[in-house]
Structures are given as structure tokens and as C-alpha cells.
């Protein structure tokens, strides 16, 4: 008999509004259940981010300090289970011109 794990995921805020250069940007990605063999991370271009990522209570928080034009782009909240990608939720960071 096959067994399945079901996950609920929430990214807050649900979309990134435009931000201001030089400000700190914080986003959270929460999963309902995180098995021991699973990892929840923020990635950019399929690589771990150089920004601060904090994992606490099944939630991955990304903190981008003093964001600048190089911080713009698409970030993904990813869940991997035994190394295999289960899901990736993209969100885009842009700044006011």
C-alpha cells in the first residue's frame, strides 16, 4: 500500500510589494509538517541564498539586509525530501525606481 505525505505551505506576505533600496527585507515560508529527512530553504537561481535564512518551527525566514539592485530577482521557497525537490514557490523582489 502506498503512503503519501501531505503538506500545506504558506509564504508571507503572499507576494512581495516593491521595496526601497537600502531597507531590510524579511519573508517567511511555513510548511505544516517538516519530517526529519526534509529541508525547507530559500533559494535564488537554484542555489542557497547568500542572505540570512533562519529555520524555526517549520518556517524558513529569509532576511535580506540593506537590499540593493543586486538583491532584485526571484527567490524560491523550496522543500526537499531526501534530497528530491518536492515543491518550489517563487516570489519576486523589486524596488521602486
Write up this protein.
It comes from Anguilla anguilla. This protein is an all-beta fold. It has a single domain (11-32, 41-93), classed as Sandwich (Immunoglobulin-like), CATH 2.60.40. The protein is 0% helix and 52% strand. The protein is built from no helices and 8 strands. It has strands at residues 9-12, 25-31, 38-44, 47-48, 52-56, 59-64, 73-81, 84-93. It has a 4-stranded antiparallel beta sheet with strand order 1-2-6-5, with no helix packed on it. The radius of gyration is 14 Å and the shape is elongated.
Structure keywords:
52% strand, 97 residues
**CATH class identity:** Mainly Beta
CATH superfamily: Immunoglobulins
Radius of gyration: 14 Å
CATH topology: Immunoglobulin-like
List unreliable stretches of 5+ residues.
Answer: none
Q: Whole-number average pLDDT?
A: 82
CATH architecture: Sandwich
State the major sheet.
4 strands, antiparallel
Helix percentage: under 10%
The portion of residues forming beta strands comes to over 45%
Structural class estimated from helices and strands: mainly beta
Beginning-to-end CA distance, first to last residue: 56 Å
- The tally of domains stands at 1
- Output the strand order for the largest sheet: 1-2-6-5
Question: Which helices and strands appear, and what pairs or packs with what?
Answer:
Elements: E1 9-12, E2 25-31, E3 38-44, E4 47-48, E5 52-56, E6 59-64, E7 73-81, E8 84-93
Antiparallel strand pairs: 1-2, 2-6, 3-4, 3-7, 5-6, 7-8
